[in-house]
Amino acid sequence: MGFDINAAEAEVSHHRETLTHIAEIEAALAGEIDESERRSATTAWALQQAVGEFLVASPQYSELYKQLRQAWARLRTIRAVLSLIDHEGHIPPSYFVRWQAEEPLERGMSYHDGQRLVPYEYDEKLLDDWLQALAELQHDADAALP
To answer: Cα–Cα distance between 25 and 36 in angstroms, integer?
Structure first.
């Protein structure tokens, strides 16, 4: 029962070649994966830009922006009237801080009403309608906007 050293060396050589080949395949696949991820990121960015351009060109976006400008104008007017009343001396000091207060614009914020935390009010239906439309727009270019 002899040991064939040549056969063993040939088998080791074959396994080394196989390992080298596997390493080359692995490196090639890693390169392909990196390139695919780069292309995917570039494509995702381009898609996001295109959706943004579509949205800001829509009449619905223009209407939202118009409503925003009107809301700011209304807020400035109300605060100017409250200031006028205050300067005439008709607002008790405890009420002054109420109309001078600034409220956060971010969702999920709350205030303390003296007894408990109360979330600031939002038009949840409008928010939900836009969330749904934006989600649909990711898969359907013809999705309707609210």
So the answer is: 16
Q: CB–CB of 96/86 below 8 Å?
A: yes
pLDDT at 100: 78
User: Does residue 72 lie within any of the structural domains?
Assistant: no
pLDDT at 21: 96
Q: What residue ranges of the chain have pLDDT lower than 50? A: none
Structural domain span for residue 42: 1-57
Q: What is the pLDDT of residue 70?
A: 98
Cβ atoms of 146 and 133 closer than 8 Å: yes
What tokens appear for 36 in the block?
A: 């695919």
Q: Is residue 129 a part of any domain in this protein?
A: no
pLDDT at 146: 93
Number of structural domains found in the chain: 1
> Which amino acid is present at 78?
I
C-alpha to C-alpha distance for 133 and 131, rounded to whole angstroms: 6
Running DSSP on this structure, what letter comes out for residue 106? Answer: S
